[in-house]
Amino acid sequence: MAAGNTRRTIAAGAIGNVLEWYDFAVYGYFAAAIGRAFFPQEDPVAQVLAAFGIFAVGFLMRPVGGAVIGSLGDKFGRRAALTVSVAAMAIPTFLVGILPDYRMLGVAAPIILTLLRMVQGLSVGGEYTTSIIFIIERAPPDRRALIGALGSCGAVGGILLGSATGALLASLMSEAALEEWGWRIPFLAGLAVGLAGVVLRRHVEETPRLLQRRGSPLLDTVRNHGPLLARLAGLSVFNSVGFYLMFVYIVSWLQFADGIAPARALEINSLSMALLMPVMVAMAWLSDRYGRRPVMLAAVALAVAGALPFFWLMHQPQTGIVLLGQLGFVLSVGTFIGVQPALMVEAVPSEIRCTAIALGYNVTLGLVGGLSPLAATWLVHRTENNYSPAFMIMIAAAVSFAAILRFEETYRAKLAAA
Question: How far apart are CA 399 and CA 231, in angstroms?
Answer without folding.
Answer: 10
